[in-house]
Specification:
By secondary structure, the protein is mainly alpha-helical. It is 54% helix and 4% strand. The longest helix has 17 residues.
């Protein structure tokens, strides 16, 4: 459903947030080790999230990536998805047609409208704090 970049970005954010709850900054090597992702690609994605002010970065020997604890509850999944993939998941034709709308729908148009609305609602209502809590408590995992 999401691009590979977005999948890695979401997992990286959840891991960084879970460590930020413990007042830890993490280096990119630690992130990729815990989410099983390629280092250079993940570094590029996390760098883009730093530019979007979703993740903070401190350089130096005691540096690393972190998310402000007070900001975690305000950052939602839709912030991550749109920062990485834009809003393409909410627009365009589900079958890839150039022109698809309510006036000239593809066979799947009406079904995609509902799915996209549900997805957007879920992404808007799910905070990074909520997902990081699940990881921290052991109720969820980022690797299998």
């Amino acid at each position: 459903m999401f691009s590979k970049a977005c999948e890695y970005g979401i997992k990286a954010i959840i891991y960084i947030a879970s460590q930020s709850m413990l007042e830890r900054r993490v280096k990119i090597g630690e992130v990729v080790e815990h989410i099983d992702s390629p280092e250079a690609f993940t570094a590029k994605i996390v760098g883009a999230l730093v530019k979007e002010n979703i993740v903070q970065s401190v350089t130096g020997p005691y540096g690393g990536f972190y998310i402000d604890k007070y900001q975690m509850g305000q950052i939602t999944m839709i912030d991550i998805v749109t920062a990485i993939d834009g809003d393409s998941i909410f627009n365009g034709c589900g079958l890839g047609l150039k022109d698809c709308d309510a006036e000239q729908p593809c066979p799947m148009h009406s079904k995609f409208v509902k799915v996209r609305a549900d997805l957007k609602s879920m992404l808007n209502s799910t905070s990074i704090f909520e997902l990081a809590e699940g990881l921290k408590s052991g109720k969820s995992t980022l690797m299998r």
